[in-house]
Structure to design on (130 residues):
């Protein structure tokens, strides 16, 4: 996997190691607790939070689909939102351009803003809405 422009090779290697560790399954209860813990801190960055995907049905799943949406349509501070996620103990695993490249290899032209993050050995797919 290519490294992100602002990462050193050591940072890129550390990110690859974190990817291998994000393997624990999510339960609906754990996902709801996690989402609840983000509500107030994400609000300070101007974002609301929502749960998406199969965890809504109560299925245990390999990843949590976290939807972040701007509270005010006039502001979208992506870097501030990312900093809040980092302060929560989350680590970026794949950024939008990397996800888009994976999709393009499968023939998809999907361009939604999705990033994959890790949190305590769990995978979190973060969907940024505008």
């Amino acid at each position: 996997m290519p490294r992100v422009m602002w990462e050193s090779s050591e940072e890129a290697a550390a990110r690859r190691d974190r990817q291998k560790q994000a393997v624990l399954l999510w339960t609906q209860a754990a996902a709801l607790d996690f989402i609840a813990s983000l509500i107030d801190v994400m609000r300070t960055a101007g974002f609301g939070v929502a749960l998406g995907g199969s965890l809504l049905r109560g299925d245990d799943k390999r990843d949590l689909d976290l939807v972040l949406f701007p509270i005010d349509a006039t502001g979208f501070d992506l870097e501030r939102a990312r900093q809040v996620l980092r302060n929560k103990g989350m680590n970026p695993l794949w950024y939008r351009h990397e996800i888009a490249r994976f999709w393009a290899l499968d023939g998809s032209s999907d361009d939604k803003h999705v990033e994959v993050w890790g949190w305590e050995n769990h995978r979190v797919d973060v969907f940024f809405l505008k």
The two ends are 28 Å apart (CA to CA).
